[in-house]
Design goal:
Length: 87
């Protein structure tokens, strides 16, 4: 029984990961990059995303705002110190 219960938990965790990856795959390429930065570093700031991707600051801000509205990122702080993390 223990083995079967452990296997069932692993299956549900993998299903959740697959669902998340499928949702991310449907995002525009820049949004995917921003989410990947947040995954790798634990957080992302607009200036970091700009430095890493080389994209326009206003474009990055628009993508981040859309990701926050859709619940893909969570905003922490206000003003210059604002950063974003995965929910």
């Amino acid at each position: 029984m223990f083995f079967l219960e452990s296997l069932r938990k692993q299956v549900s965790v993998l299903e959740a990961k697959i669902k998340t990856e499928n949702v991310i795959a449907q995002l525009p390429p820049l949004s995917q990059e921003i989410v990947q930065i947040a995954k790798q570093h634990g957080k992302v700031m607009v200036r970091d995303a700009q430095r890493i991707t080389g994209a326009n600051r206003n474009t990055i801000k628009a993508h981040i705002a859309k990701l926050v509205r859709k619940g893909r990122l969570k905003m922490v702080g206000r003003g210059k110190g604002t950063w974003y993390k995965l929910p």
